[in-house]
Specification:
Elements lengths: L6 E9 L3 H11 L3 E2 L13 H21 L13 H43 L10 H4 L4 E9 L3 H7 L5 E5 L6 E9 L3 H11 L2 E2 L10 H54 L3 E2 L3 E9 L3 H9 L4 E8 L24 H7 L10 H15 L3 H14 L6 H21 L19 H29 L3 H6 L4 H19 L3 H29 L4 H24 L2 H23 L4 H35 L18
Antiparallel strand pairs: 1-8, 1-9, 2-8, 3-5, 3-6, 4-5, 7-8
Amino acid sequence: MWLPESMTHLLFAAKQEKLNKAIDFIGQKEEFHLIKVEDQSLKQPRTESKITKLKQQKNDIEKIIDYFGFSTDHIEAEAVKPGEVIREADNFIKRFNRELEKRSEKRERLEKEEFQLDVVAELLSLFPDTDFEIQELFEGQYFNMEGGTIPLGDRESLEDVEDVEGFYIFHSAPVKESLPVLIFYSKDEQDRLKRLSNRIRFTKTDKFYDFTGTINECKEEVEIEFWEINEERTQIQSTILDMGEDGRENLMTLNKRIETALRELSWINKMGRTKNVYFINSYIPTSSTRKIKKEIDADDDLYIIEEERIQRDSEKAEGTPIKLKNPGFISPFESLITTYGVPSYKGIDPTVPTMLTFLIMFGIMFADIGHGFVLFILGIGMGLFKFLKNYSYYLTYMGLSAMIFGALFGDFFGSHSFHPLWFSPFENVQQAMLLGLYFGIFMVSTGFLLRIVENLINKDFEELFLSAEGIPGFIFYISLILVLFSTIKAHPGNIIYFEIALTMLAILVIALGRPIKEAITSGLEGETLLESMVEIIHISIAVFSNTLSFIRIAAFNVAHVILTLSIIKIAGMFGGSSTGGKLSMLILGHFMVIVLEGLIVFIQTLRLEYYEFYSRFFITGNLPYKPVKIK
């Protein structure tokens, strides 16, 4: 809980024909963090072509799923053989697309026919209801007729030619992006008709010339054909939907199998191989080692090559994946840690101190029983939704902390309606500032102590005994605090002199410790002495700026009280004479305080953790623990 979980390096092997069984084993266990095998004597698996093919197939499958508007079903993943998945997907996609394309082409053909019928219907609508034969209009005694469309965007060009002598042009309502047009022209104007047609981009509608009989009969025939096409198109669309529904389960299963195959190939890419054997390089939690080794030993197809528990002070610790392990009620705060960075395998897991100090600081700054109760209830409500459960812990804990400090400071929705159990920061600002200062000293001191523990874990005795980040730096900070405190309190001079002596001793160790060690062991270099001097200046500025930053805890508490009192005043001034008006203003005001100031206080608390507390001890790691999973 205070350290990242101990990890064990495990190198094991599987025969080529049993590779799928090995992949199923590591995927089902969900405890193996795979590392690429770096061995020049081993071959790298050739998976690029399979990965490329599977990605293309996944894209094709997802296009089909999107085409039918299917939502993704939850399907349990199982180990697969990528080669088999590729063949299965290839056969399914080709067969499915071939059938879909055949039906879609038929539907598109009917849609084109329907468009032409639309145009014909519009052209016929230009004629009155009559029993006049339409063929006599196509080739009349004096005039001929042409029916077709022009692009809707060329409507203006049509106006330019409507008055051309020898031509009579009529048009109806647009059909999609086309304008149906009838042209009547003299029999001897064929050449001019071609030039005019080109000018307005006129296209004949062939379907129009297929109709015979009277105008009324043509209109009736169009109606019948519309009904027949619509019925046929509906049937085809229905068969397409049925086809999708029938293949839905196969589509979803195949999509999941392709995802699993891609995941497995990414694992295989990290392996090394000989002609017949694959080598799997991994890290597992030490607590699971005995159980996993027992299962591997019992399997004739898996062989353990190397096993090593990684010591925190070893060189291999740098490349070891980091797994944080905390009780369930604390683990949500791990996300605050990982947002800053992954703690090193060599370092402290700061989840517990972060949770405690974060809640204390938030509670002091946001101290109010009423506001805290609202956050607490919101947290409980969010916990009812699975996807919000982790976030609900924050609100619940912060609400409880705000309620506790609200009782200690005597705040309830901004009113001081009861005597505080401790003191009122609003009425005693000096004591509140001292509280922030003392808490800052506690936080910085805790950071020093955690760094000292890290040095002991890593057996870094030079850093422990000679560095400003180790024991000398801690003594310098504490002794200087004591000097200031003793001076203010007018303690006896011998106590102050002793504290000053401690401070000077710490400075001398930081300034000369490493240079003297270097001079004795390998010869002194000027850079080391200069670095030690810079280190003294840095720690002198850093620790006190870190400490003073915590005074903002008191400042935000006072600001919170002032803001809530202002809400009460504003409600009294602008809420009107009615109780309902004042209550509405109070509810709105307190809601704004809870949301806006709650967010600001959260950010400020996080800032104090990251920049003032973590800067004292946090060692950033390189590799978060990510076990491979089939599911």
